[in-house]
Structures are given as C-alpha cells and as structure tokens.
Amino acid sequence: MSQVPAAQAPAENPWENALEQFQTVAERLGLDAGMRDVLSHCEREFTVNFPVHMDDGSIRVFTGHRVHHNEARGPLKGGLRYSLGVTLDEVKALAMWMTWKCAVAGLPYGGAKGGVVVDPRALSERELERLTRRFTAEIGILIGPDEDIPAPDMGTDARVMAWIMDTYSMMHGHTAPAVVTGKPVTVGGSSGRLEATGRGVLFVTQEACRERGMALEGATVAVQGFGNVGSVAAKLLDDAGAKVVAASDSGGGIYRGDGLGDIDELLARKREAGCLPDVHPGDHITNEELLELPVDILVPAAIEGQIHGGNAGRVRAKLIVEGANGPTTPEADRILQEKGVYVVPDILANAGGVIVSYFEWVQDLQSFFWEEAEVNQRLERIIKRAFAEVTAEHQRHDGTTLREAAYMLAVGRVVEATRVRGIFP
Ligand code: NAD
Questions:
Q1: For ligand 1, atom 13, which residue shows the shortest CA distance?
Q2: Which among 52, 162, 255, 369 is least buried, having the fewest CB atoms inside 10 angstroms?
C-alpha cells in the first residue's frame, strides 16, 4: 500500500489558540470566573483505539476522538475529520469553534467535532468502510439525531456519512437518516449541501466587498486548499466575476496572473492526476508563497495555523475570507489588524456548511425535502443576516476585529442559554 505524504501539521496548538480567542472576548464581555470556566472546557472528550482488518489480512489499530464542547443551545453538531494531523487538542479546538459558529448563525445546536488519525488516501475503499463502521460503533454511545449529529470535514465525504448512517441504523433497528448530515441525496441528504460551505464563502465575500467598497467583479483571488470548500468557493467566486489566479492543495500550488481558467476543468484534471501542481502548466508555487501573493482576496480553505506571526506581515491581500477553521493564529490577527486587512472569521465565513446541515437535519426529521433553489435562498438569508449582525456588533465596539465581534455575539448567546437553563442539579 502506498503511503501518501502527510498534510503538513499546524505549527501551533489549535486548542491554545481557540482558548486565547475565547479569553480575549470573555474579558471584553466581563464574564465571571465560573462562566469562563464552564465555556473554556469541553463537556466530553472521548478517545478510542480500535482495530480494523486490512485487505492484506493484517490488523491495524487506529485512534479516534469525538469531543462535545457545549450543548447549552441544543443537540451537538460537528464534522468528522480523517487526517494524520488529527490530535485531541485539534478536535477540542474544532468543537469549541463549532459552538461559536452555530451560535453566530443562530442555529439551535451546540458544538462537537470528531477525528481519526488516518490518511484516507492510503486505505482502500473497503478498508475505509470498515474503519468508518467500527469508529461509528465505538462512538455509538455519543451520537444520535437528538444527541450529536456528525457531518463531513477534511478527509471525509458523503460516502463516509452514508456508512455512518447505515451502521447507526443497523445498531438501532431502524433507518435513522437524521444521525448525520452531508449524506448522499438518495439516502436523506439535502440538495445543495455539497456546495453549501463554498456557497456561504461566496455570500460573505460579496457582503465583505460591499462593506469595504471593493468590487468583486475583476478582483483577484488566491485559494489555499482545493477540496470541498476551496474548489467550490473558487468556482462560485469565478462565476461571480472574480479572477482566481492561484490555488493549492497538499501537493503545492499553481499561479497564473491572468487567471487559472475554467475551474471545473481544473478540478476534473486534479481528480485524475491527484494534485494541482501535476495538472497545470502555470507557475508552480508553494503553499507559503500563495499566502503572500499580491491578490485582493485570500481564501484559506485547508487547515489551521496557516497565517501566523511569521508570515502575517507579508500577507498582501486586502480581504481574507476564512473557508478553513482556524487558519489564522491570534498573533497573526493582531498583525493583520494593524495592517488594515479585513478578516472575515471562520465562524462566520464557513458557516454555510452547518447552516445547510441544519436544513438537512430538519428535512430528515420531517421526511419532507426541499428544492435546491429553496435551500440556497434560505442559506443566503441566514448567512447574510449573521454577517449583518456581526458587522453591527463590530461597529458598536471600537477597536475590535471582526472575529472579536463575531465571538462577542456568539459567546453572548451561549452564555445567555447557559444562564437561562441553569446548572443541573
Ligand atoms: P477536503 O478534505 O475536501 O479538502 C482539503 C484540501 O486542503 C485538500 O485540497 C488538501 O489537499 C488541502 N490541504 C491539506 N493540507 C494542506 C496544507 N498543509 N496546505 C495546503 N493545502 C492542504 O476538506 P474540506 O471539507 O474542504 O475542509 C477544508 C477546511 O474547511 C477545513 O479546515 C474544514 O474544517 C473546513 N470546513 C469544512 C466544511 C465542510 O462542509 N466540508 C465546513 C466548514 C469548514
């Protein structure tokens, strides 16, 4: 079995960054010590080590995590990541960010996340299915339509969600489509879910351009990460008149000042060849160089910690729209703020995925499915409302970043729910 190179591990600890972001806002909101303590812990951290039969007859043990950060606002919701870079601290950070993201979008969910330490490209389809089904059984005591509803994240997709749904259904003796979102449409998935995160990135980019007095038409764009989020965002931004000049994946990046051309065609060729630098005659660049290109808009859509204290000073984009979770460290945030770069934070910018996941869950619970146009219209309404609420909060508080404004709104909502519910017993 060929081992594909690991995605580069983030240089900083995402959990420490998530805590620092929270503490900054807790200070601004004047939260008391008890509430800070509640919100700076994850409610449950579950680690499993489980065996899987490989195709060659051997047995391998894999490690996975499922973490619940806070369920004050409703059942827990969060993606499942397959990557060699997965750590418990990464999953905890991603779970906390989910709590704030659901709150900022006004969804009735708390934040969760899961991950398995594995390179999915190094497994056969049958091995991936066995791993997914066994992991589902291992975390079976945590998940359920009313408890914790996983969804795709890096390294997982609709096919993985279908296996989770089927395994959970077999364990419970009835089909339970609402246990996961991001499923294929044939088994209860929602129209528009596959493109939802990238479509949300488009909507917030439109709003951010309007807010900053920038034209999206003709604006140059660089996209780091060309998976679900990055490729759909690139395609929709291109369709909206922007010029995508650079893109990258874990194999490296490509750059053409006059534009990368047809994004669908690029994606099709990437699928055949495996990684972007192998399919494009344009100038090859590294992922680090992509972040420092002289573009109008930068969309980091890969992993955490990519824009940090060491390179933020060299970022030349005017607008950063965070398709990925946690791509900018707190130190980089301070540098970007000084430089006047407008950063639309992850908990707002990539909320399109969980918004349409919420629609999928509602449709599954009602067994009543919507047309794609209706899904996209509702997504646009909710994410633009969230953007307006965050910018209003930003204007009310001088000297804050847009991230701090989004956090103030989100943390305030979670605090309110915690107070109203009270502490059991
Ligand atoms: P994906 O697996 O579909 O794609 C990830 C892409 O990032 C791939 O092109 C991969 O090659 C690239 N990549 C990995 N490591 C890299 C590195 N070190 N440098 C450059 N590129 C690298 O994953 P996705 O679902 O598109 O998720 C991307 C990001 O968006 C993650 O941070 C994820 O948490 C976040 N996100 C995803 C969703 C969703 O609905 N899928 C929703 C919200 C946020």
A1: 250
A2: 369
How many angstroms separate the alpha carbon of residue 304 from the centre of ligand 1? Answer: 9
Contact 370, 363 (CB under 8 A): yes
- How far is the centre of ligand 1, averaged over its atoms, from the C-alpha of 323 (Å)? 8
Mean per-residue pLDDT of the chain: 96
State whether the beta carbon of 197 lies less than 6 angstroms from ligand 1.
Answer: yes
pLDDT at residue 8 tops 60: no
Q: Closest Cα partner for 249 from 282, 270, 226? A: 226
Name the nearest CA neighbour of 142 among 61, 80, 86, 53: 80
**pLDDT tens readout for residues 180-220:** 999 999 999 999 999 999 999 999 999 999 999 999 999 99
pTM metric for this prediction: 0.96
The whole-angstrom separation of Cα 269 and Cα 174 is 41
Amino acid, res. 12? E
Catalytic residue from among 77, 92, 101, 113: 113
* Residue partners of 202: CB distance under 8 A and separation at least 6: 233, 236, 237, 240
Q: Encode pLDDT of 270-289 as tens digits.
A: 999 889 999 876 689 999 99
Q: How far is the CA of 333 from the centre of ligand 1 (A)?
A: 21
Give the C-alpha separation, 123 to 71, whole Å. Answer: 34
Buried b / exposed e across 119-138, counting CB within 10 Å, b at 16+? bbeebeeebbbbbbbbbbeb
**One-letter amino acid for residue 105 of the chain:** A
Q: What is the mean pLDDT of residues 246-263?
A: 95
Q: In what order do the strands lie in the sheet with 44-53?
A: 44-53, 59-70, 110-117, 76-83, 148-152
Q: Is 223 in the pocket of ligand 1 (CB under 6 A)?
A: no
The Å distance, Cα 249 to ligand 1 centre, comes to 9
**Amino acid code (one letter) for 168:** Y
113 classed as catalytic: yes
CA–CA distance, 291 with 314 (Å, rounded to integer): 8
Question: CA torsion sign, 223 to 229 to 231 to 232?
Answer: negative
> Whose C-alpha lies nearest to ligand 1, atom 23?
154
Residue 301 near ligand 1, beta carbon < 6 Å: yes
pLDDT of residue 322: 98
- Backbone dihedral region for residue 168 (phi beyond 0: left; psi -120 to 50: alpha; all else: beta): alpha
DSSP code for 83: E
